[in-house]
Amino acid sequence: MADLQDDLRTAAAAAGEFDELAEPYPDEGLVTSEPYEPVSDPDDAPMTRARAILAAHPVADGYNGLPWALKRLSWYDLQDGESTVDTDVPRLRSGHVGALFWSLHLPEGLDGDRAVGATLEHLDLAKTIVRTCEEGLRPACTAGQVADARNCGRVAVLLGPAGAAALGDSLGILRQLHLLGLRVLTLTGVSWASDAGLTRFGEEVVREMNRLGVIADLSGASAQTLRRALSLSRAPVLCSRSAARSLRPHPANLPDDLLAELGAAKGLCLVPLTAEQAGPTVRDVADHLDHIRDVAGAHCVGLSGTYDSGAAHPQELADTSCYPRLVAELLRRGWEEADVAQLTWGNVQRVLRGADFTARAAQQRREPSTATISELDG
């Protein structure tokens, strides 16, 4: 075990600051909403209480597209404020955001070597942004590093999700992307994770992700892929941008039966703050959170701001500073602090810890897989 830990630390150190291992972490018909009523005075009691809860349990935002949004700018200033995007350090602090998952998804149409190369460039851009904003942001790969960043007054940045095409159908590329900091991979849009479900190679990808500590993202995946991944994965899975289909019939939203299965498997559904998937008002978003909590459990629901991804956002939730407004709405509905704490911070930390623990155990039992898609699916 000591030799294994030494090997892991050596490999991580060679990969740079995103790869530093932490010490083991301790044990189209739409549903019509009610008439919208604006959030009341921001100094009212629920808002004051929301800010106090978020100060103790900040938001772990499951999907943010900032690197791609900054790519088109010749100059920006995230530290002091950048009005051309939805995300900057002042607004993250105002919104009590403690961690961000930065999307590495690519424009549609890229596959093969082009997808691999574009993902590497996206990773490089993301790391450069963090380095140039080190007073506000800090790279993180594990639950422990996320907590350390928060304790130092920084917003933790985790890399992912990336699209499955980024692997180029190669487990070796998956391992190298992991060394470069990738922590979430979306299992859609490739031959081995399609509407028909996971192929034999796709199943081997999931096993290798478990061994590495890369979390499976199943937003947009077929029901067959989702169910097979739930049964196969030894680590918790997540849906990075999925709301309740019974409230809003968007194809990426989940029906109640899949929400229940996700909850039973201790997975995580991150509700996107987008008008298209959740609805046009903060109350609509809260309706989805209420519903998923009721169907799948409080341990199964989290938040996915989806800021700087090109999506339109509900009223009162225009940028990353607006999370207290959503939490205040939940408090008005009777949410207890414990459930809010799970929603904003605890559930993401649980999934990160689960991925870490699963990887440590799997690395003692299993060598890196040398399987190829031609061998398994040919």
Automatic annotation (TrEMBL):
<dbReference type="InterPro" id="IPR008257">
    <property type="entry name" value="Pept_M19"/>
</dbReference>
<dbReference type="InterPro" id="IPR032466">
    <property type="entry name" value="Metal_Hydrolase"/>
</dbReference>
<keyword id="KW-0224">Dipeptidase</keyword>
<dbReference type="Pfam" id="PF01244">
    <property type="entry name" value="Peptidase_M19"/>
</dbReference>
<feature type="region of interest" description="Disordered">
    <location>
        <begin position="1"/>
        <end position="29"/>
    </location>
</feature>
<dbReference type="GO" id="GO:0016805">
    <property type="term" value="F:dipeptidase activity"/>
</dbReference>
<feature type="compositionally biased region" description="Acidic residues">
    <location>
        <begin position="17"/>
        <end position="26"/>
    </location>
</feature>
<protein>
    <submittedName>
        <fullName>Dipeptidase</fullName>
        <ecNumber>3.4.13.19</ecNumber>
    </submittedName>
</protein>
<keyword id="KW-0645">Protease</keyword>
<keyword id="KW-0378">Hydrolase</keyword>
